[in-house]
Amino acid sequence: MNLLYILLLVLCSAFNVSDAWEPDYRTMTASPDAWHTTTTNTTTSVTDTSSFLIYNEDHNKCVTVVSANVLQAVPCNVSSKAQHFRWISSSRIISLSLSLCLEAENLENWVKIILQPCKELSPMQTWECKDQNLFGLKGLPLHLNYGNSNEQNMMLYKGTGVWSHWLIYGTKENLCSRGYQEMTSIGGNSDGKPCHFPFKVGGQWYADCTADGRDDGQMWCSTEEDFDTDRKWGFCPPKNFAEDQHKKGLSLFYICFFSFVVGVVVIITTAAVIIRRKAKNSAITGTDNTIWMFKKTSEFLKRKEEATNQLINSD
Questions:
Q1: Is the pTM of this model over 0.70?
Q2: To bridge 221 with a disulfide, which of 189, 195, 216, 306 should be the other Cys (CB 3.0-4.6 Å)?
């Protein structure tokens, strides 16, 4: 039984170790100086499904980034990185094309919406979803607005009409339905800390994982805001990493459970065989004892009869 238990543990451990890391995402602690640290002027393409297009259903148009100071509504194009945004906290939205955060120029009615470096505590970058797909600054009656024929830029507006209502393009869901999702890094030298978006490398900001600076094309991120200062990093998980790990976890569970069941069956079967053998041996031993006692009794009776006959004859 002990040997069988050890065998099951070894089997489960073997599966667990083999699935611990994807081959292309193995633990690495080499210094980032081993890379070519020069970066290009372009950031990586969109690599995850948490990004989205900000869509106004009434006009059938999406927000696009023309420049840091110009955001407009144009026909939607999912292949345009200028139209992709993502939550980087519970209240801040970043443009994946410029790695800057969505901001109102001021906390006033009818001011431009622009992009600025992300500031965690800035009230002009703190957004929330409200009733009926209304989207605006948190705690204030000021909303992201389409603009109008005279004002082509995205504006901050106190009105609550359909021009201030926004969805994720291709869905009927509001912008908060694809909220902030923490991305845990793999390997590197950060011990699994989450990626920090945006992060700065060589003076350039990144809103997403990047392969810049690496010869092998693997996607990575900084786990601190300024990589050049802190030098903390890790690989980014594949798109379906969580789902794959979940499936592998289930497979491992079923393998171990099946092995356990098989082991229990083997143990029960072995025990039954042993009990049957003992019972059979006991039955045989009992029979032998009975025969022996019968023989002894017969011999005793025979001798008793002989002794009785001798007494009779002597008389």
A1: no
A2: 195
Residues in Cβ contact with 266 at an 8 Å cutoff, skipping those fewer than 6 apart: 4
- pLDDT of 246: 45
Note whether 241 and 248 are within 8 A (CB).
no
CA 297, 302, 305, 310 torsion-angle sign: negative
For 56, residues 6+ apart whose C-beta sits below 8 A from its C-beta are 62, 63, 73, 146, 162, 163, 165, 166, 167
Structure tokens at 222: 């900084």
Q: Identify the residue whose tokens are 């990144």.
A: 206
Residue 227 φ then ψ, to 5°: -65, -35
Residue 99: HSE in the Cβ half-sphere, 13 Å Cα cutoff: 21
- What pLDDT, in 10s, does the model give residues 219-254? 999 999 999 999 999 999 986 554 444 444 444 544
Average pLDDT over residues 15-40: 40
Query: Angle at the Cα of 137 (from 131 to 138), degrees rounded to 5?
Result: 75
- What's the N-to-C CA distance of the chain in angstroms? 73
- Joined tokens for residue 92: 């801040």
Q: Does position 205 have pLDDT exceeding 50, yes or no?
A: yes
